[in-house]
Amino acid sequence: MRFRARKAAHMLERVGLAMAGAACGLFVGAYVGSAIAPLTTQGFLLVMMLLGVIGFYLGIDTPQLPFDAAHSNIDAAELLSSAGTFCATLAAFASVAVIVLRLDPHSALTWLVLLGWIAGVAMQIVAGAKARMRK
To answer: What is the C-alpha separation between 52 and 122, in angstroms, rounded?
Structure first.
């Protein structure tokens, strides 16, 4: 019974992370889509949310290296996961700030937020896939 409860708790945690990724993707998509006219589509918002779901589901809470291997090597998956999470959430934070504070930033910030988001979730996806392949 204890095993099932742990599995259920872990699944709820992962679904919650995926929902947080979708919310971050929605904010980034809303900001970038409103600033770059060709990206003002529902499809763009959906793609941004799906990237967030996949990235946050796979890239956060990656399996760690065994204890003895963790001291002799740099864990590339853990490094990618943390860097990707930082980049993606920083892009989402900047997007929320622009939306809530009704700022009118330079277009370079918009492109930087978009690139930061894509790079961040890409790092999370690669980290999650790499960590699960070594299991």
So the answer is: 10
